[in-house]
Write a structure and sequence with these properties.
The structure is a single chain. β10 and β11 form a beta hairpin. This protein has 12 helices and 12 strands. α10 packs antiparallel against α11 and α11 packs across α12. Among the domains are: about 45 residues, 2-Layer Sandwich (Uridine Diphospho-n-acetylenolpyruvylglucosamine Reductase, domain 2); about 100 residues, Enolase-like, domain 1, CATH 3.30.390.50. The chain has a 5-stranded antiparallel beta sheet with strand order 4-5-8-6-7. By secondary structure, it is α+β, with helices and mostly antiparallel strands. Bound molecules: iron/sulfur cluster. Iron/sulfur cluster binds next to loops.
Length: about 325
């Protein structure tokens, strides 16, 4: 690990001032950044610990919820309002990591965790995300866990967060603050596709701090988070699906679908959602939506299995969400 300096500011203003120092980086719960520093995949010169900022409240706001950036994953998943109104979010967070990690990891940090691509963690291997322009070892290497949607020839990594997939299906917004003011970013726009610059995971600007995640009022319908992983204990998703389905009689009134483990960002399947609106409630409709959700997917060899797996997981999640018949 490279030497670094450390400070723990008491308020947001002090944190924003501190991040201007050379080589500075925000530190949340540290459950990902410290691992990356241990293998020199991240080498900040200065850490600005924001985990104790007074941003650990969950409050009612505009019919939805405002989740402070330092709310731990445990507190988020266990909040009665989240469990009652946004069960897809609570289930996604509970599926994301062990209890010890959930107690430490923060809401803001969860959104900023980096890919678990093996080559990103190995400084002896080329990786465009770690060293821009060095190449992508996964393209011709072992790519079982990699992307099948939205990838580029520069990077085929996937975003690892379960929480972000649920936030995508809920149309959440991310509130950020910098020295020049505050703004809100739709979660769909927050994470980027790799294109030619995979070193940037999000559209955050220099010095911008996540201060909260805003949940709009809960959508009508049943909510489900379904995750497929190699190990039944804790592991990153091979494929995950967050689904919300509203039904009326024998018809599907509306549906929302977000997928994890398949792209560089949580992937909303808008075309599949459009096809379901007004369709007759049936296994065939959900199977067709699953196929639509993976339209255009490209396998790289070891990860070819993800394409049919994602289609089937979407169909299953939609079936389960519809069965809940929550008004
Ligand atoms: Fe690096 Fe992305 Fe290629 Fe993995 S997939 S080696 S993170 S460039």
């Amino acid at each position: 690990m490279q030497p670094f300096t450390y400070e723990r500011p008491a308020d947001v203003a002090a944190a924003l001032a501190a991040i201007g120092k050379p080589g500075a980086k925000f530190l949340g719960g540290g459950t990902n950044l410290l691992d990356l520093m241990k293998v020199d995949a991240e080498t900040p010169q200065h850490l600005v610990d924001v985990s104790r900022l007074p941003l650990a409240q969950i409050s009612d706001e505009e019919g939805g919820l405002r989740i402070g950036a330092t709310v731990t994953n445990s507190d988020l998943a266990g909040d009665p309002r989240v469990r009652e109104r946004y069960p897809v979010l609570s289930r996604a967070v509970l599926n994301g990591a062990s209890g010890q990690l959930r107690n430490q990891a923060t809401t803001g940090g969860n959104l900023l965790q980096r890919t678990r691509c093996y080559y990103f963690y190995d400084p002896s291997m080329p990786c465009n995300k770690r060293v821009p322009g060095s190449g992508c070892s996964a393209l011709k290497g072992y790519n079982r866990i990699h992307a099948v949607l939205g990838a580029s020839d520069a990077c085929i990594a996937v975003h690892p967060s379960d929480m972000a997939v649920a936030l995508a299906v809920l149309d959440a917004e991310v509130e950020v603050q910098s020295a020049s003011g505050q703004r809100r970013i739709k979660i769909a726009d927050f994470h980027r596709l790799p294109e030619a610059a995979p070193e940037k995971d999000t559209i955050l600007g220099n010095g911008e701090l996540i201060t909260a995640v805003i949940l709009p009022p809960a959508p009508p319908g049943g909510q489900i988070y379904r995750k497929v992983r190699d190990r039944a204990s804790y592991d990153f998703a091979l494929v995950s699906v967050a689904a919300v389905v509203e039904t009326e009689g024998d018809r599907i009134r509306s549906a929302r679908i977000a997928m994890g483990g398949v792209a560089h960002k949580p992937w909303r399947a808008f075309e599949a959602e459009r096809r379901l609106a007004g369709a007759v409630l049936s296994d065939d409709a959900f199977a067709a939506a699953g196929e639509a959700a993976v339209k255009g997917a490209v396998g790289r060899g070891h990860n070819d299995f993800k394409i049919p797996l994602a289609a089937r997981t979407v169909a299953r999640a939609l079936t389960d969400a519809a069965a809940q018949k929550k008004a």
